[in-house]
Amino acid sequence: MTTSFQEIVVEAQTRWQALTAGSQPWIRVGTALCGKAAGCDSVVDAIKGALESRGMRATVSEVGCLGLCFAEPLVDVQFPGGPRIFYGNVTPEIAQRIVANHIVGGEPDAEIALGYLEGVFTDPSTEEPDSEDDRIRPKNIPNLDLHPMRVLETRIVLRNSGTIDPMDIYQYVANGGYRALEKALREMTAEDTLTQVADSGLRGRGGAAFSTGTKWKFLAGSGAPVKYILCNCEEGDPGAFNDKAILESDPNTLLEGLILAGYATGASHGYIFIRHGHDGPIDRCRAAVNQALELGLWGENILDSGFNFQVEVALTGDSYVAGEESGLMEAIEGKRAMPRFRPPFPAQSGLFGKPTNINNVKTLAYVPEIVSKGAEWFAGIGHNQSTGTAILCLTGSLNYTGMVEVPLGTNLKDVIYQVAGGVPAGKELKLVQTGGPLGGVLGADSIDVVLDFEILRSAGAIMGSGGIIAADEDTCVVDLTRALIAFCQYESCGKCFPCRMGMSHLLEVLERICRLEGQPQDLDLMRSVGENMQAGSLCGHGQLGFNPVASALKHFGQEFETHIIDRQCPTGRCLGPRFSPKLSRR
User: Fold this and answer.
1) Which is nearest to 460 in space by CA: 383, 555, 543?
2) Is 302 left (phi over 0), alpha (psi -120 to 50) or beta?
3) 524 and 557 share one domain
4) Most exposed: 1, 165, 214, 385, by fewest CB within 10 Å?
5) DSSP 297
6) How far apart are CA 175 and CA 161, in angstroms?
7) How far apart are CA 570 and CA 586, in angstroms?
């Protein structure tokens, strides 16, 4: 590849200026998984059909998730030099109205508009935004930055989500993409790059929250000629979708982070590991990988730096345990996804017996901004030893559901009541379940706690991969706990006895309690099983498998006792012998 990076930047900025300040409007439609589920494909077709029938010209782009999932399908219209006008819950009929009133008529349809974002355009020669006086603010339409879901945000990983076309690498470059890679290769040694990540305090966002810099040092210390960096996007947690959203919305920020990780550790190959069937993340990630190769941003002699790094997208079947790092390596090698015995640890002998490092999507996606802006900048965001931001998926009984990126140290209570708008229909919040099925539940009176890895853990919950599920007063805690354990039991790979049998025993006891046939000794029995699982299981699936039961007993022990002693369910969800769980079991 003979094109220099500066030539790539100039081309990208030229295209971006033509798109945002050219001669025709730009229409963006959110087509991530949340948009697909809400019917965005028919909206795209309706917009294109309405434009064609009226002889109007406009650029129509499919973008990723802005985070306002409750408003999907989400459409925004931007005229050259103007603000982005957003319309939510768009149907094909509303799409035709948008074209007729906004595109043809030339004025935003304030009656149905959700909000606007200011049109701030960058001068490619200075990379400075326009002045405040140059920004256009439409009348009678609210500023979307003042929406509850956006007011507490500090966007780092999600900076481009819902704004750029994830299938166009030039849009990523035009917004600062791959400048961190160019900076590292031109101005920094591999050791300098690793030091920046270590000094930033970045910790793994896959659940364990281990120091990323320390983890990378394990791999960097190996002099093996073949070393692997693996990106884990086996995102199977109910209620978590931020990894998939990153790949659907801005896959190049992950890819750039992966290449930087390879450079910092001296790795030779990178794998992006995605669950089979997640077509949006797979297709957009593969497009980013292919386009980056065409521009010489990975491969042999990257940007004439002498650094070589190969990238591949690998798929796995529907296996939750494939997200465990050694199970992930087994899957890439074509085996059944089951955890390995350790030692040896991956940094010694991992994928194909070579030194290996595994990172979560979010973890790697932070790296370009850390390298670009410096460790001190990132370390200045967050709380105590939990630096940076948390990317949260808000689902359940909430007025506003979706994805937000807030600084660590933000109060969970503020997230629930301010960001997510509290519980709808005038009901009361009963609990918040965090960290996926291996996480914990917090009662409504226990959510006045800041988002901090250690503080959450001491409260009986974990950050996990960022899923937060809210439940209202109509939720039966015993039945919810049963559903979580049923998921964990179904997803146990069965390799080790404590997890395989422990999950089954927990589920049997919980089903008995839900049938209002539980015995007083059942609570101690579950605690005993949980202790054995924690002590003897091979991987985190079994070691953490008792968490939902333990936290539920801590915060809602009285409700369990009501089921057992009084033979009653306070919510009426559990109907005695007639209770019949819906989840199938292995």
Assistant:
1) 555
2) beta
3) yes
4) 214
5) S
6) 12
7) 30
* Coil, helix or strand at residue 118: coil
Structure token pair of residue 88: 């939510």
In a domain, 120, yes or no: yes
Between β-strands 429-434 and 440-443, what pairing exists: parallel, antiparallel or unpaired?
A: antiparallel
pLDDT digits (tens, 9 = 90+) for 418-454: 999 999 999 999 999 998 899 899 999 999 999 999 9
Domain that holds residue 404: 386-472
Mean pLDDT for the chain? 93
Q: Sorting pLDDT into bands at 50, 70 and 90, what band is 13?
A: very high
> What whole-number distance in Å separates Cα of residue 387 and Cα of residue 382?
4
Sequence-distant (6+) residues with CB within 8 A of 414 are 152
Q: What's the pLDDT score for residue 566?
A: 95
Regarding whether 190 and 324 lie in a shared domain, the answer is yes
Asked whether the whole model's pTM tops 0.85, one would answer yes
If asked whether residues 251 and 359 sit together in one domain, one would say yes
Query: How many domains are contained in the chain?
Result: 4
In a shared domain, residues 345 and 201: yes
Distance CA 289, CA 448 (A): 42
Q: H/E/C letters for each residue in 366-428?
A: HHHHHHHHCHHHHHCCEECCEECEEEEEEEECCCCCEEEEEECCCEHHHHHHHHCCCCCCCCC
Q: Which CATH number does the domain housing residue 266 bear?
A: 3.40.50.11540
* pLDDT digit string, tens, across residues 111-152: 999 999 986 444 444 445 444 444 567 889 999 999 999 999
The number of residues making up the chain comes to: 586
For residue 586, being part of any structural domain is answered with no
Q: What is the pLDDT of residues 346-368, one digit of tens each?
A: 999 999 999 999 999 999 999 99
Phi, psi of 372 (to 5 degrees): -70, -45
**Beta-strand pair 440-443/75-78:** unpaired
538 within 8 A of 327, measured Cβ to Cβ: no
pLDDT range class, residue 577, cuts 50, 70, 90 = low
- Here the CATH number for the domain that contains residue 421 is 3.10.20.600
Q: Please tell me whether residues 523 and 461 are part of one structural domain.
A: no
Is position 291 within any domain? yes
Adjacent-strand bridge partners of 391: 405
Residues with Cβ < 8 Å from 110, sequence gap 6 or more?
138, 139, 140, 141
Measured CA to CA, the distance from residue 40 to residue 44 in angstroms comes to 6
